[in-house]
Predict the structure.
Amino acid sequence: MNSFPKVILKSGKDEAVRRFHPWIFSGAIKKIIGEPQEGDVVEVYSNHDDYLGTGHFQMSSIAIRVFSFKQVNPDIKFWKEKLSDAFEFRKKIGLINNPETNVYRLVHAEGDGLPGLILDYYNGTIVMQSHSIGMHMIKDQITDALKEIYGNKLLAVYDKSSETLPKLSNIKSVDSYLFGKPETNEVLEYGNNFFIDWENGQKTGFFIDQRENRKLLEKYAKGKKVLNTFCYTGGFSIYAMKAGAEEVHSVDSSKKAIELTEKNIEINELGSMNHQSFQVDAIDYLKDINDKYDVIILDPPAFAKHHDAKQHAIQGYKRINLQAINQVKKGGFIFTFSCSQVIDRNLFNSTVVSAAILSGRNVKIIHHLSQPADHPVNAFHPEGEYLKGLVLYVE
């Protein structure tokens, strides 16, 4: 067994890690034996010298991200076993070799016991995002392991970590291919075609986490007038059109997003007779829609990425939900979401209910929505549940 720097926790600060929570905060550390550099592997011990876990060290408030609660030598064999477990889980939930869907999340950080690592599979290409220096430093080992797991079904691995690595780190990254060359940027999701721009798009190129919620929309879109705000690649719009919506409007302030939406409508051969895009601010667009839509989708970017923006975010969610509730047609539906991790499910729900009270309309909650199974939430790390959603029926 290798000898790693040793991190000793203060008395009473070991309770969370004993419950298998993977984060060690800097304030919990009593002393460090050795001189770990950012990204190095360290072992964590209690003040009574009990081994607690092994993880990556970093210079931030989250000082250690634990990837094993057993003493291990994290070599390529170890990482391959971890990745194989993630792969087998996706196979069990029906996402591997699925003829209708060839886009999914392979690794969801803490949800798969690999904190700091995101891997998204796009029809033969895997896009990697490292949120910790430790994971970034082993990107080549991860790539080699992926090649063994997928064999000739893996065509390329693209590292897109330049914007996700810790800002305070001295280590910088340039987005680039670590292996191979993609054959296509087109993917299938429930039989719908999407063009994915992982090199220039948001996140890894597509909001995979909304897959099941897009599918649910089909039940409510037929024959309806649908508004998809913050549309990005037009995912909800495609599902609504395929379901037989009477009319679909896609709204986003980004020219690139509108271009991607139009491209996805084209590759699905849907025509444009019942679709129109608007490159405008979605919040401004919502101010005056005058009883025009039967179904409204509110899927904004995170209004709060940090706790200090929490109150501002709450007001933002209340405002857009109030506008939608006030103006949706009688007997209409609203799909409303928050992807802000600092806004928990109860707070989001109560914010939407506050908007409903202010509207004076009778509102029913008919679905509670979340992220899909390929974005699992570690039972010991509830912070991993970031996507919250409600479907409202407005009388």
About this structure: The radius of gyration is 22 Å.
